[in-house]
Amino acid sequence: TEVPVGHDEL
Amino acid sequence: MNLFRLFGDLSHLASIFILLHKIYTTRSCRGISFKTQALYVAVFVSRYIDFTYISVYNTLMKLFFIGSSCYILYLMRIKYRPTHDPSIDTFRVEYLVGPCVLLGLIFNYQFTVIEVLWSFSIFLESVAILPQLFMLQRTGEAETITTHYLAALGAYRALYIPNWIYRYFTEGTVDPIAVTAGLVQTGLYLDFFYVYFTKVMQGQKFELPA
């Protein structure tokens, strides 16, 4: 598993 | 984007419109914690200044949350100032901000200003509702519209949880900082949700047992 890049969540 | 996240974001949007509606129709910000609202400004400003382009949706939402939270502070501090009673809004915010700064410095994905601010904002958001809940606890009751605001706000982070589970299975991604803080944030609402579902949804007034 990876951390989602660029923080696409609000 | 999945439905859980979309509905989570819509619930967040709805909560802000409910709050504005409450302030406008009652011409008062009674029952609303200024401290919680000020913490949300800190949360949105520290999280959304990264200027990373994701999508039009993302940018518009970020602008909306920064703009509306500042506007609510203006309403509370200037326009409807006399309707706010600071003597019941007594939660000590420094006990929240201090530890969140520390947590942000310790737990982050990269030791850069932007990333530390992002982590800080995630931790701060998870506890930003405490002054509001504390105020509710002190007064022991709330206007129904205020409870709808809180329910929509709580539903927002609650809906992010199935979103993370969905993303784990579809994209294989996990964001441990957001998930941990999100679980804490949702947990803080449990008591409130219990009273909301057993009383307000049955048409009764929101009143805490003495």
In brief:
The complex is a heterodimer of chains A (10) and B (210). Helices cover 0% and strands 0% of the residues of chain A.
Alpha-beta classification of chain B: mainly alpha
For the sheet with most strands of chain B, the description reads: 2 strands, antiparallel
What is the strand tally of chain B?
A: 2
Low-confidence stretches of chain B: none
- Silhouette of chain B: globular
Structural class of chain A, by secondary structure, is: little secondary structure
Q: Could you report the average pLDDT of chain A, rounded to the nearest whole number?
A: 74
Largest sheet of chain A at a glance?
Answer: none
The whole-number mean of residue pLDDT values of chain B reads: 95
Order of helices and strands of chain B: HHHHHHEHHHE
Number of domains of chain B: 1
Indicate the percent of residues in helices of chain A.
under 10%
Largest interface: which pair? A-B, 9 and 25 residues
CA gyration radius of chain A, whole angstroms: 7 Å
Largest sheet strand order of chain B: 1-2
Subunit arrangement of the protein: heterodimer
By DSSP (H or I, 4+ residues per run), the number of helices of chain B equals 9
Radius of gyration of chain B: 17 Å
How large is the count of helical segments of chain A?
0
Task: Tell me what you see in this structure.
Chain B: It is a multi-pass membrane protein. Chain B: This is ER lumen protein-retaining receptor. Chain B: The chain crosses the membrane at residues 63-80, 92-111, 177-197. Chain B: One of its GO terms (cellular component) is endoplasmic reticulum membrane. The complex is a heterodimer of chains A (10) and B (210). Chain A is largely without helices or strands and 10 residues long. Chain A has no helix or strand. Chain A is elongated. The N and C termini of chain A lie far apart (21 Å). Chain B is mostly helical. Chain B has one domain (3-202). Chain B contains nine helices and two strands. Chain B has helices spanning 3-26, 34-48, 56-79, 94-106, 113-127, 130-139, 144-171, 176-188, 190-198, and strands spanning 141-142, 206-207. In chain B, strands 1-2 form a two-stranded antiparallel sheet. The N and C termini of chain B lie far apart (43 Å). The relative contact order of chain B is 0.15. The A-B interface holds A 1-4, 6-10 and B 5, 9, 12, 47, 50, 52, 54-55, 58, 61-62, 65, 109, 118, 160, 163, 167-168, 171-176, 178.
